Each structure stands twice: as structure tokens, then as C-alpha cells.
Backbone:
């Protein structure tokens, strides 16, 4: 038994009368709200239309949940281990296990379609929302502490997490303390959020470069975190994929180092429909009417 440890909650849900409230779901909702609110603040700070990020979220969030569910389902099928309850059990996203790659792909696709429909450049939207997404992911992944579903091998470290017998993996029924992977992941997400805020402004990153940087930082952080978990030199597909992502991100950022922001809020000419009467796109002006997203007052 370690000298100190992180206890797990006795239950993953509360009850408001007869209504069960799943704490993982609350953390997921909190993460979504954090991401949208910070993204909205950053986008309006660029001169963008107010409430746009909230509008995009009405389609991006359901698309992300759908993508995450599909990824979880496909990954579980290929691994021969569907979530508890089989195909229907995979729908229970409030029990944890939303597939991040699928969620990212679904949310990004929905955001791109929305921007295309409204003749908006996706670059400023990405630079606005990416830091908030990383911070929101930290809040969401913390929810797996309540479901006791994101832990690693046994550990005697002072920050090991205690897992109840019901949630222990097969073969480890007699072990109580494990590596808290959810904690490592949350710390990585917070660090990525802070670095994105700094580097987007410091390096005048475009939206695509900020996205690539975010993926690279996330993969690098995951590699650092997983080094605390692995006790041997074994290398799996996840590590190989993460190393590939870091290298690819580095190569792309070096190759596109001449691309600098800030970008126009309006989509490129060949990508947009004719401008409305008056010659100015509603989202290419600051709230006081100045063109190009440039404010005339502070």
C-alpha cells in the first residue's frame, strides 16, 4: 500500500430524486461549455460575429459525439471487445469511452461545412477554439475518475489511484492501486492549452498550422505521459502513431513557416458566394463596422 494515494469516488452518479445524474456526463458537458465559451471570447476578440461559435457548436458538438461513438464502436469491434452491453452498450457515452480521434474528425467536419455555408474562413475559427478545446478536454477526461475507467498498471506511487474491485481489470482483482492515466492526460491537456494560447499569438499561426501544432503537442504530451506508465521497453501501435504524428507535425510546420496570420474572417474568393449588397461580408467586419476585422476603438 502506498503512503499516499488518490481515492476514487464511491459512486459515478448522483440522484436528484428519481433522476440519475452521471458525473462523467457532467464533466463532459463542462468541457464542452468551457471550449465554446473560450472560443467565443477569442473569436469576438478578433472582430468576429458574436455568438458564431455557439451557433457552430449546435452542429459540431453532436457531430463530435457521433464521431466519437463510431470510433469507439469500430475500435471495439476490431479489438474483439465491445463495451459492456455490446452494441447498445457503446451508446452509453455517459459511462465513459468517447473515442477522441472520431470526435475530433466529426467536430472538424461539421465546423468546416458550417464555415463553407456561411462563407467564413475556417482558419480564424480554429485559432479561436483550439486552446479552449484542449482545456475542455482536460475537464472531460477528469470525468473518467468517476467511472474508474482510465487507469494503467499497478503502482505504489504517492499519486496512484485506488480502483474498486468491481472496476479492476481481469487478473488484477487483488490489486488496489494503479497508475492514474486520466490525471496524466488532464495535465497534458492543460499544458497544450497554455502553449497554444502563447504560440498562436507569438508565432502568428494560421488556423491550419495551429491545428497541426495542437495535434503534435497532444501526441508529444501523450508520449511523455505514457513513459510514466510503461515499465519496460515495449512499443505498441499507439506509441508509433504518436511518434509519427509528432514528426509529421514538425515537418509541416517547418515547411509552412512562411504562412503567417492573422487571417481574414471571410473565406477565400474562390470559396465564397457573391457578397451581400454593400460589398461587405457580415463576418468580415468588427462589431463597430470597421472592415477586415480591425477595431477602431479599444
Residues:
Amino acid at each position: 500500500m502506498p503512503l499516499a494515494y488518490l481515492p476514487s469516488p464511491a459512486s459515478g452518479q448522483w440522484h436528484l430524486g428519481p433522476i440519475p445524474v452521471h458525473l462523467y456526463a457532467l464533466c463532459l458537458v463542462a468541457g464542452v461549455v468551457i471550449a465554446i465559451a473560450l472560443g467565443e471570447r477569442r473569436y469576438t476578440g478578433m472582430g468576429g460575429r458574436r455568438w458564431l461559435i455557439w451557433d457552430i457548436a449546435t452542429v459540431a458538438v453532436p457531430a463530435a459525439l457521433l464521431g466519437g461513438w463510431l470510433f469507439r464502436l469500430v475500435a471495439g469491434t476490431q479489438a474483439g471487445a465491445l463495451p459492456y452491453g455490446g452494441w447498445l452498450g457503446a451508446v452509453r457515452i455517459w459511462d465513459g469511452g468517447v473515442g477522441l480521434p472520431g470526435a475530433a474528425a466529426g467536430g472538424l467536419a461539421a465546423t468546416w461545412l458550417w464555415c463553407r455555408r456561411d462563407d467564413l474562413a475556417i482558419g480564424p475559427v480554429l485559432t479561436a477554439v483550439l486552446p479552449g478545446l484542449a482545456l475542455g478536454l482536460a475537464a472531460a477526461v477528469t470525468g473518467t475518475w468517476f467511472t474508474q475507467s482510465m487507469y494503467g498498471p499497478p503502482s505504489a506511487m504517492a499519486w496512484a489511484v485506488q480502483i474498486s474491485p468491481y472496476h479492476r481489470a481481469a487478473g488484477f482483482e487483488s490489486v488496489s492501486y494503479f497508475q492514474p492515466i486520466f490525471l496524466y492526460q488532464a495535465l497534458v491537456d492543460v499544458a497544450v492549452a497554455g502553449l497554444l494560447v502563447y504560440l498562436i499569438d507569438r508565432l502568428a499561426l494560421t488556423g491550419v498550422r495551429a491545428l497541426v501544432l495542437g495535434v503534435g503537442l497532444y501526441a508529444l504530451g501523450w508520449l511523455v505521459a505514457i513513459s510514466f506508465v510503461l515499465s519496460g521497453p515495449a512499443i505498441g501501435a499507439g506509441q508509433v502513431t504518436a511518434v509519427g504524428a509528432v514528426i509529421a507535425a514538425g515537418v509541416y510546420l517547418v515547411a509552412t513557416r512562411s504562412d503567417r496570420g492573422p487571417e481574414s474572417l471571410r473565406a477565400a474568393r474562390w470559396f465564397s458566394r457573391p457578397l451581400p449588397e454593400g460589398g461587405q461580408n457580415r463576418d468580415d467586419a468588427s462589431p463597430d463596422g470597421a472592415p477586415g476585422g480591425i477595431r477602431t476603438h479599444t
Notes: The two ends are 58 Å apart (CA to CA). DSSP finds nine helices and four strands in the chain. Confidence is low (pLDDT under 50) at residues 78-87, 270-275, 285-298. The CA atoms of residues 206 and 259 lie 7 Å apart.
